[in-house]
Design a protein that fits this description.
It is built from 14 helices and two strands; from the N terminus they run ααββαααααααααααα. It has about 280 residues and is mainly α. A two-stranded antiparallel sheet has the order 1-2. Strand 1 and strand 2 form a beta hairpin. Helix 3 packs parallel to helix 10.
């Protein structure tokens, strides 16, 4: 097992937070590198054509928003993942960046995601990691439908997962969140959302498939809602829409700034509850 996958005390234990603080400089380094990387991506995005033309389904001011934060977030994850796992995560980020730059059809994109999925299983030596990465990457991609939502949920998952690489990963996400909280000045794009799902599964590998499922429960539930809703009305599940859980809450009157903490709290409660049940 890689050092970054060493287990910490239980997140429900009073020893957990001193153990997190004891991780030291990687926390600050991950935050600062992701912060700087996101800022740099914002500056480079217009020249590379990596801009999202914001529409009503994002509940965001109109205009073009940079969507090149994935590489900056990946740079911050250097302090959370050992090189073999980081390279697996980088392959997912690359696929997402290709999709951000030149929209990939659903079929080729799904096939390309087999690369990090199979690589993750090979590097960790656990066969279940392959389907878990493929499913989680797509689920976190779907959860990224409103400002700060997916990044806040993933930050909570990484922080409380209970492995040594988790808190530095959460710190990197916090660096990105500086620019992603409503109203977002930067989007992670598919380069970031596919990276999130892959990273969370890699971090959860020493805890087992149940943990990977628990810490991705929120995006998986959102994906199930979306797929069921679209199949019911005869729409293609992979075509975007405004039927995500976050969209429904916003339409019900929830302020946009409340979505990130709400989804972070839901992720924490579902993940910790599942881990507590598994520990019995």
């Amino acid at each position: 097992m890689f050092p970054s996958q060493n287990l910490l005390p239980s997140p429900l234990s009073p020893d957990y937070w001193p153990a997190v603080a004891g991780l030291g400089w990687p926390l600050a380094a991950a935050f600062l590198v992701a912060l700087a990387g996101t800022w740099l991506g914002m500056r480079l995005a217009p020249g590379l054509g990596a801009l999202a033309q914001v529409q009503a389904d994002r509940w965001h001011q109109s205009g073009a928003v940079p969507k090149l934060a994935g590489p900056g977030l990946l740079a911050g994850l250097v302090f959370a993942l050992p090189l073999p796992l980081w390279l697996v995560a980088a392959s997912a980020c690359l696929i997402g960046c290709l999709d951000d730059h030149k929209r990939l059809a659903a079929g080729p994109k799904a096939l390309l995601l087999l690369v990090p999925a199979v690589a993750g299983a090979w590097v960790t030596g656990q066969a279940w990691v392959a389907p878990a990465i493929w499913i989680a990457a797509n689920a976190w991609n779907l959860l990224d439908h409103a400002d700060g939502l997916a990044s806040a949920a993933a930050c909570a998952a990484c922080l409380l997962m209970g492995v040594a690489g988790g808190p530095p990963a959460a710190a990197a996400l916090a660096g990105f969140l500086v620019f992603n909280l409503p109203p977002a000045r930067s989007f992670m794009g598919d380069g970031g959302s596919l990276l999130l799902g892959t990273t969370l599964v890699l971090l959860a590998a020493p805890l087992g498939p149940e943990a990977a499922l628990a810490w991705s429960a929120v995006p998986l539930l959102d994906s199930a809602l979306v797929v069921a809703s679209r199949l019911k009305r005869g729409a293609k599940p992979w075509i975007g829409g405004t039927d995500h859980s976050g969209h429904r809450l916003l339409r019900a009157g929830l302020p946009a700034f409340m979505l990130p903490p709400l989804y972070a709290l839901a992720t924490a409660l579902l993940g910790l509850s599942a881990m507590a049940l598994l520990a019995r």
